[in-house]
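Input structure tokens:
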């Protein structure tokens, strides 16, 4: 029997296309602490030329970018919403991403929310779940 989340697995060709065509990545749950996975991933993506948009409770700028309390307050278009939050927080983030007209929901390793994935998928967003965007970028581009 196929696991539900397999429906959201996309080919490496589709993933490469997403990474090539994306410019703005909202990182939800981005920590200002250098040792945290969210910071490590976001700084890697920034070095690769993506604009990182921190989405977190009010606080300091991160990686030279202003942090926003939620996706809806981000003043520019968002290509990828990269989620570093607990699975139970994902549904609200997905609703904001849909309203903001983001193109991709990317749930990091260990972040699995079938209901949120299903809703995002039905609304036309690409969904990548339980995978690290940094690792996938390295696999595809070296």
């Amino acid at each position: 029997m196929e696991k539900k989340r397999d429906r959201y697995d996309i080919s490496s060709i589709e993933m490469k296309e997403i990474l090539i065509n994306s410019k703005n990545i909202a990182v939800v749950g981005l920590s200002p602490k250098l040792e945290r996975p969210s910071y490590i991933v976001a700084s890697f993506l920034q070095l690769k030329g993506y604009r990182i948009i921190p989405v977190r409770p009010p606080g300091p700028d991160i990686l030279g970018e202003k942090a926003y309390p939620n996706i809806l307050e981000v003043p520019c278009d968002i290509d990828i919403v990269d989620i570093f939050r607990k699975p139970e927080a994902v549904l609200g983030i997905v609703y904001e991403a849909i309203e903001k007209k983001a193109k991709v929901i990317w749930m990091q390793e260990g972040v699995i929310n079938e209901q949120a994935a299903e809703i995002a998928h039905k609304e036309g967003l690409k969904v990548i779940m339980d995978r690290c965007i940094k690792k996938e970028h390295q696999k595809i581009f070296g």
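The CA atoms of residues 34 and 40 lie 7 Å apart. Strands lie at 24-28, 51-55, 80-83, 104-107, 126-128.
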